[in-house]
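Build the 3D complex.
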Amino acid sequence: MTLSQQALARAATNENSGANDTILEIRGLKTYFFLERGVVKAVDGVDVAVGRRKTLGVVGESGCGKSVTFRSVMRLIQSPPGKIVEGEILLHRKDGATVDIVKLDPRSRQLRDIRGAEIAMIFQEPMTSLNPLHPVGRQISESVLLHQNMSRPAAMERAEEMLNRVHIADPDRRVSEYPHQLSGGMRQRVMIALALSCNPSILIADEPTTALDVTVQAQILDLMRELQDDFDSAIVLITHNLGVVSQMADHVAVMYMGRVVEYAPVYDIFHRPKHPYTIGLLNSVPVLGRKENNRLVPITGMVPSPMDDIRGCAFAERCPEAMQICWEQSPEFKEHEPGHSAACWLHD
Amino acid sequence: MIGYIARRVGVSIAVVLGIALVSFIVIQLPPGDYADGYKSFLIEQGGATESEAEAQAELFRQRYGLDKPLPLQFLVWIRDMVTKGSFGFSFAYKRDVGELIAERFPRTLLLAVLAHLTSTVVGIVVGILVAPRQYSLADNLAAFAAFVLSALPRFWIALAIMFFLVFTLEQEHVTAFHSPQFVVVPWAFGSLEEISRTWAKLLDLLQHIWPVVVIAGLGGVARNMRVMRGNMLDELNAQYVTTARSKGLTEGQVMRRHAVPNALHPIIMYQGTSLPYMLQGELQASIVMGLPTIGTLLLTSLRNEDIYISASCLLIYGVLLVAGNLIADIALVVLDPRVRFS
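Done.
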């Protein structure tokens, strides 16, 4: 199955699911790092929304700000040097209220109630994301005890149940084992169990399969999809693997140099991409069975330094279709077709 | 785990025997022996002639077995240690070395443990506190203070404290473990009166030893603090700490439950090597403050080639080093599952 066919199949299942409201809206988010050698504008005006029970794929090359954007949502940016300088992150909470996460104190009770219970996160490195000194069951129950009114034994039982839900064999034995006794895939399953143990409404997965080998990758993705249905969570899938996005995502945000340059339903991204960067990304993915003379087309040039002050469009110098205006003015990120936004002068 | 500890104990015993041999050999390396010193003493102070003095020295050597071949001397030393619990005879003090050491060891250990606790606790606590505030004013001040304390010569600090005690606070008695009026008071708890006297004696003891504890202790703070700070910085940047934060734990819980236990690992390993170090750490301060400890005993014995004292002291340091490592190994097994299961 090619990427676009997968995207089509994914789009078809969406039609039936209904319920189109958003759970998380990021508006004009800017997260800068104030370093001695200059200001790094890691996230420089990101607008994106996550739909309830939907999966948002966030793609872009290393350093484009995709992780920083969603670490800002969790307020996990280390400060100093990092700081959210502008923007709003609106979370529609379980109790119906809407909070702007940017306005919360990172040490406040309110934010701690959101972390783990409403937004949970899993990371790229399953080898290091668990504490080596505690049994995995205790690490899961720690989160359960924090957010749910449960006794210690009940929380341990919950941990065991979660291990069972992520298809770890012998959960009653594994619950008291330490991370170094588990394989990489199993640790990532434990991380998923930990993240979902308090029924969060959003699961942020920061390159969850990058460090795993391919067969394990597929299992982990299957597991995430299965649990998304069971737990009614929205998933934010941060990755640079377009194949994963086409299998998993409902919507895709393509990021470049700290900004979202294109946002659309997954089908449109693969079939009617608008931004030359998105087109470049799609052209640089190998497709099984493609003719030999149909060579991969890389995107030329290098990513500019995020410390540079760029006039105009950040992609202009690598863009095959750059026009005069691209060098002078930065294009606005706006909706060109219903549900399909891009930041590119070509479509104005 | 029991098997692991048994293995470690077995290896330790072999290492101790090796240390005994090496300390005995090292002591024999300098030219001459105690009898040579005795001989020159007789010539200079007693007005004896060269040959008379030499004959006396020879008699002395025969009496204490110094004329026997070295391997035999070593075997006799070890044999007496194992069978009679005797560490040899001190020529200078004319007493059994074991007695001499036993007299000083508890007090030395008290000083050393107090100094060590000071340096470890202060170092670890300050390290934990400054790590999240890297390069802040507090961090720099703590580093500055710790380095100054470890760089200042200890005898100099001891003199300064002594000066302060005598001339500013006008404390009457600063050297030795006790003021003269308390030396004969027994450590007894029989009656209320005895308890109150014991209490007064304890306070007097603390009043005499605190400078040594503080000097030897604070000198070691720098190392513990910098090691702990570095470990904490590593751990605070580790992924699992981010995981812990993303669960919704408070910053205090993240530190206590996750970062600190992991950061303690290298400190505990280093504790194993610091037991003998802390015995020596009090040496300079003890000399200035006139406290009779093992350190001062070793120093005098080295000067007048009182070999059995020197060898026994070195052996004790060696045993403590091995014991310290053993304790650290066992502590790590308890703390770290990765060590426990491999």
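Residues 14-19 of chain A have pLDDT under 50 and may be disordered.
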